[in-house]
Amino acid sequence: MLQLSVVVPTFRERENVPVLVARLAETLAGIPYEIVFVDDDSPDGTAEAARAIAVADPRVRCVQRIGRRGLSSAVIEGVLASAAPVVVVMDGDLQHDERILPRMLERLRADAADVVVGTRYAGGGGFGDLSGTRVGLSRLATRVARRTLRAETSDPMSGFFMVRRDAFMEAVRDLSGIGFKILLDLLASSPRPLKVAEEPYSFRARQAGESKLDTMALWEFGMLLLDKTVGRFVPVRFIAFALIGGIGVGVHMAILATLLAVSALAFAAAHTVATVATMCANFALNNAITYRDRRLKGSAFVRGLLGFVAICSVGALANVGIAAVLFDRFETTWWASALAGILAGAVWNFAVSSIYTWRPRPPRPAPAPVLRPDPARSL
Ligand code: GDD
Ligand code: MN
Fold first, then answer.
1. Residue range 45-65: mean pLDDT, rounded
2. For the whole model, what pTM was predicted?
3. Cα–Cα distance for residue pair 11/8, rounded to 1 Å
4. Domain encompassing residue 321
């Protein structure tokens, strides 16, 4: 009977894949296991490397996602594509020490725990030679995470943990799936407090490839915290969208002021130019930040931009219309009328662009099957 599913999110890890599979075979000898790689269409051929191994070793599989990015969401899909009663999530770059897996499994059973976290912060764990700033940042984020969410572990930011499938499934529909911190997400989303045990390990240095953790990971961490605190009331994407809209006001004013100062344009013309330029800037920012996981590129970017401008134009009409009606007919104060108009416009822009501009991309439909008469029937 299968005992353990190893879920490995990968992005550009081709060289590490065969090494990881070999090391897992060694350390998991005697434990029936499977390995599921979840690759986000890495350009270096990571998925092909995994499938090349899978041909000879049916314990190995690869889920290849197209047009998607994200460590947490990859992990969720990997867990859903696997079957063992216990799942371990680990990085594909050999930084997580696979030799503690048998001990983690023992601990899960001995402590009757739901989760066993591979920790760098407790008894014997450590950071290897990770840079000082990375360690400092990691410690700070750890403190913030533990304070904001109930995460009873010394290393809530760990990407290395074992979990019972039933505990994961209880939480799966409530997971945010944003960013890098799937363990934190799980601990904060579970309907009941999870029983957590820990197993120390030392974070290894990366041998091949490079880290994908960048400044955006910090933003995504903030979004995860927001989603787990106020996300019940307001979608976090709307918060990001509104923040960028706020920046847009500044952009608009700067362009308008510049045009009025240096060009001969009349106010209405300058205002129109500033409006269009601001829509373009907002589109680019939302594409890079709010919808980073569904970022549009190339011709899709241009099409998305045109659609976005059209949507926002309608939003602007709604904004002005609602504000005018409130002000003229209902004698609402000027600022409340303006705020209501702006809010209505923003909600419209967000709702419609989330459906039309950055809709989750469905897989391209397969070509329609060619209908041939069924030889068996025609007999
Ligand atoms: N499928 C998929 N999609 N995999 C990804 C993506 C993505 O968008 N981004 C990164 N990965 C994979 C990498 O290929 C690697 O196997 C693993 O996720 C971790 O990514 P790294 O880029 O190596 O992250 P790190 O080493 O900087 O961060 C690690 O330490 C953090 C704590 O310090 C990770 O373990 C984090 O989860 C952990 O929070
Ligand atoms: Mn790494």
1. 97
2. 0.80
3. 10
4. 236-356
